[in-house]
Batch of 3 targets.
Target 1
Amino acid sequence: MSAMLAESRSDQPTAVVDVPSSARKRVVIIGGGFAGLAAARALRHADVDVFLLDRRNHHIFQPLLYQVATAVLSPAEIAAPIRQLEAKQRNVSVLLAEVTGVDLASRTIEASSPGVGVRKIAFDYLVIATGMRPSYFGHDEFARHAPGLKSLNDAETIRAKILGAFELAAMTDDEAERARAMTFVLVGAGPTGVELAASLAQMVKVTLRGNFHRIDPAKSNIILLDAGNRVLPTFAEALSRRVTRRLTRLGVKVMTGVKVEIVDEQGVVAGGSRIPSATVLWTAGVAASPIPKMLGTKTDRAGRALVDPFLKVVDAPGVFVVGDAAALMQNGHPVPGVAQAAIQEGRYVGRLIAKGLKGRKVKRPFRYFDKGNMAVVGKNYAVLERGWLRTSGFLTWLVWAFVHILSLPQLQNRLRVQRQWLWSYFTGQRSSRLIPEPPRTPGADAG
Ligand SMILES: Cc1cc2nc3c(=O)[nH]c(=O)nc-3n(C[C@H](O)[C@H](O)[C@H](O)COP(=O)(O)OP(=O)(O)OC[C@H]3O[C@@H](n4cnc5c(N)ncnc54)[C@H](O)[C@@H]3O)c2cc1C
């Protein structure tokens, strides 16, 4: 079955270039996120050629993206080049390419690389690990005014929007415009919305204190909206209540049970009322990348591929979907879209393929081992839920900081983040408060 992406441009003929073949079997992994990298690493001792494709040259540690968006960390501190895997693992080739089609009949994928064009790559095994992207629930027009948080570009856009809003507030003589500039609306009170709102609240009170003579950033209005009836809906209700109290104490206005109807350049209309705001951030839904749909297999409402308990695509031998792109039920509950689940799934599939190559069969289906769910709510406060264990407060925050430092992929990043956090913790300062300059026309400054 052919399912090449409809957007394939006709002005760019498909060159069937195929990467050089060898006698060895070939595993193609699409996506160098948590799941794809774990799958590639699990194949390090296997007698196989692994091709790891990603449209970005870097892996992002997404749990800390909100800190880039709020100027605590700089982009390089939470990213690592995927290519360094080639230096560590002889059987891996990393390709900078965007996959635009999957053809199960010919067992090839179609990938487009900058400067090279489109090429087809054959596979014996295919691992799809393409993750999720922000979803505007059918209102894609909101995206223009309310950026989501998924990539380093998104984080930098949000940071520039937040810092730019204060500059606007300080420049304008119009009181209403100043109030609009100092109102921040976050749509979606899941972990990303909560973490971003709390970090922003701290930034306006501490980091920006005294930075403007004309305005007081502490008087900003930070509003966290959600159509559901509580914040952090995937956590226990008791933790949700604690987090709401904590946010309120930090100065965040939590509005639940409120649906956003319009997002435009003036702000939002939510629950029938207009909230003027120069900075609307989308922290609500996510949807799978278009790749799982190209398999022609069943997908859930968010576009994730329904996989069997071995993470295989039904009726497609040797084709797997892992991480956020996969929809898998366990004990009547969906396996959550979190980094640990992605890593465990990627590792499982890598090992399953390695065993298959040796003619051995894996009999035990994938089991997700839940190490716990955490969210941080500003300085000194985090919540943790693991089975019956529910904790919150300073000690939980220390655990959160420790776990996140250790989870960063590069030692260099661990040391840099540690240093930045210590600096920020004791001084309240954030070193990445940059608004990128708009590109200038060459020669425009001349004369
Ligand atoms: C802001 C934010 C905060 C989060 N916080 C936490 C947290 O605190 N704890 C936690 O456990 N989880 C958190 N998560 C969720 C966690 O990051 C995801 O569950 C995890 O990244 C999923 O891993 P993945 O490998 O499936 O996908 P990803 O890590 O998203 O990787 C997908 C990769 O596929 C590539 N790709 C996509 N499409 C194509 C294509 N067509 N061609 C080539 N490459 C492609 C992408 O460039 C990307 O590198 C957070 C997510 C976000 C966005």
Note: The pocket of flavin-adenine dinucleotide is lined by residues 30-36, 53-56, 62-63, 65-66, 98-99, 129-131, 149-150, 191-192, 289, 291, 323-325, 337-340, 342 (CB under 6 Å).
Target 2
Amino acid sequence: MTPREDGYRVAVVGATGQVGTMMLRLLRERNFPAREIVPFASERSAGRELEGGLIVRPLADDTIEGFDLAIFSAGGSTSGEWAPRFVEAGAVVVDNSSKWRMSDDVPLVVSEVNPDALDGHRGIIANPNCSTMQMVVALKPIYDAAGIERLVISTYQAVSGTGKKGVDELLGQSRALLAGDEPPDPRAYAHRIAFNALPHAGNFAAGDDHTDEELKLVNETRKILGDPSIRISATCVRVPVVNAHSEAVNVETRSPLSPEEARELLRAAPGITVLDDPEAGRYPLAIEADGQDDVFVGRIRRDRGHDQALDMWIVSDNLRKGAATNAIQLAEVLHERGLVGARVA
Ligand SMILES: NC(=O)c1ccc[n+]([C@@H]2O[C@H](COP(=O)([O-])OP(=O)(O)OC[C@H]3O[C@@H](n4cnc5c(N)ncnc54)[C@H](OP(=O)(O)O)[C@@H]3O)[C@@H](O)[C@H]2O)c1
């Protein structure tokens, strides 16, 4: 199939949310070839006017007809119900939720890492979890050069990863505490997030001692790198940072790799900025990654307890590369490869 000359009809589902708002902005900024962009959200927002005069529509059988591409960021249950319906109506779906990521017939794709996985798509394409996304961008050049035996990961995740309600909760509690008032009770999190660190990012399923966020890091990393043998240990922590996730990652390689070699590989890789001069105070920071598309890597050093392991610090804007930017990059690759509207039956 050749790309449409008059542009695609694109649905953005979850268009009023943090990720959806960013996706609408990026579709415009990156000049995605759309002849029409239609925002969808819940019934609550139907009729609302967004930037650029776009009017929010509700999801219904008659409103989802006639799209080439639908990009979802409206949570797992909305994707579960409506993504197959968009596919049935002829669209290709790029989904930000966790609903389809581990399904065998759904490619889980990071544009710099495994774009070829798009080629056999069956209608739905999954965008990985934000903390997995930024990490695999940094790990891919290392994996290709030296293999990866084991990862030990600690995340420091921003509240924007929980949606608007997470940001509102951090700011509301912080304002109250700074004014000397009693902070509002936690609603988005199990405990107060302001001036705290919660070893509880995501949810514990009954009887499980890992959160779903930790299991996503394990399972999605293996699927994207195509290597189920990588051993992975993850602890995900929610911290009082508004936006951009940070991660301390210990990487045990299969063949020797020095910190200097790792730095060179990362400098040459797409989508990565190496910031690594600790004496001068240069290393990635959440407040500097906020608003940027790149993945920032620094503090690259030999693990003093293991001569075939490296430690590194990886930071990225979870709403951009961790969600919206990658989704739009996938739409661009689908367009370039003539895969919008084309799928393996
Ligand atoms: N935040 C991140 O860092 C991040 C990263 C990767 C993936 N994601 C995924 O992206 C999705 C959205 O995250 P977010 O941070 O943008 O959340 P958010 O700010 O809370 O926005 C949620 C969006 O979903 C819409 N929505 C909720 N229920 C709906 C329904 N029943 N039907 C249609 N639309 C519905 C909301 O519409 P209303 O305004 O009408 O309620 C809103 O547009 C989630 O699946 C999340 O897991 C988020």
Note: The helical segments are 18-29, 76-88, 130-146, 164-178, 212-225, 259-268, 286-289, 320-336.
Target 3
Amino acid sequence: MPSLTFLGAARTVTGSKHLLEIDGQRVLFDCGLFQGLKELRKRNWAPLPIIPETINAVVLTHAHIDHSGWLPRLVSQGFRGQIYCTGGTADLCKLVLPDAAHLQEEDARFANKRGFSKHQPALPLYTQEDAAEALSRLQPNPFNTRISVVPGLEVEFINAGHLLGSSYVLATRADQSGGRVLFGGDLGRYARPILPDPSPGVETDILLCESTYGDRLHPAEDDGATLARVITETIARRGKVIIPAFAIGRVEELLYWLFKLEDEGRLQKLPIYVDSPMALKGLAYYNVRTDELDKEVGAMRKNLSRFTAVSSAIESKALVDNDTPAVIIASSGMATGGRVVHHLFAGLPDPRNTVLFVGYQGAGTRGRQLVDGAQYVKMFGQQVPVHARIEKIDAMSSHADAGEIIRWLKTFPKAPKMTYLVHGELIAQDALKAKITKELGWNVEIPSHGQKVSLPI
Ligand SMILES: [Zn+2]
């Protein structure tokens, strides 16, 4: 009987890896990095319970690092197959994987310099060469087209509206049984700018559904009112608004709102900086794939010259030192690395400034500490006092909330035999399981890390 093993994103939101074993073939769906708490990050170093060489193919739902960021490690450990994804996912992986490798190399260099690693010398989890090798294995495919990934198994990518190229992957047995598993990836949201609505559900035997916000409802869309208020108040204090943003995905929506508010006269015209080389390249990819996006994206296109692109590290340093009121969008989104850390290091002690979070802040990240009201955060070996105002806008999340997940599940033509909740912290998953059971009467399970289940397909 086919089986599924949950090798990541089980009772946590990162490290997505789901191994489907079917007719002697092994296919890994998503290959993400664990992030956040140290005990989770340690899992990135642990070997898989199976030899990577025995995995025949990998299929990616989307390019976010918690779904793709372990690929270079998989390759360095001996995986030799192809990696199937959409064209948009392949584009964005060309940005995120080399960047992730760079960060791993930096971490190892830093550990060697400080001598705090148990290993001498400290080695990176993977290198730029491993990332390049992983990229060379990507096989981009169009949406809504069935392709064979291993003998006996076909997959189809369906637009999930969560990120450029993001998909649900429908895996279908090529024999008469036609057994199906839908790997939900991350679910987008309804009636948002930039990205399309999530595609309706399809008939499937087994469903893997994300549950990041399974216990929450995003605040109602306020047409940019909170964003306008936060920026206006900060500018009145002559401060800077520092927005940590995931380099791919969030920046496009932020710019959309900023330009819209300016055009409607609800926000004074301000210097807007995008201080992230990766975000700038990501914007370019969004620009060439507008047919996969929301129709409103065309309006944003003509506005692209209205922000200042900060490309070089020297320009970034000058911006950190500049005291002029401005909006600064920089990555990473959970303030765990990247240029935003320098902006925070300089900006957090100043009560005129605001740090505005617009995405999910994982447990154990600097972003979560700030959102939770930390008085000090550690950066570059120092305790930095937090005097800046900390704000967050959950309405701008790219993940569906509990209500939107239920709305999506109601679009399925019939109940799957089993729905597994993944990609959520347990408290959110318990709440979502109760809601699905009550409102839809579906069979729902919350798998644990490493659990293997038989699939009746
Ligand atoms: Zn995602």
Note: The pocket of zinc ion is lined by residues 62, 64, 67, 162-163, 186 (CB under 6 Å).
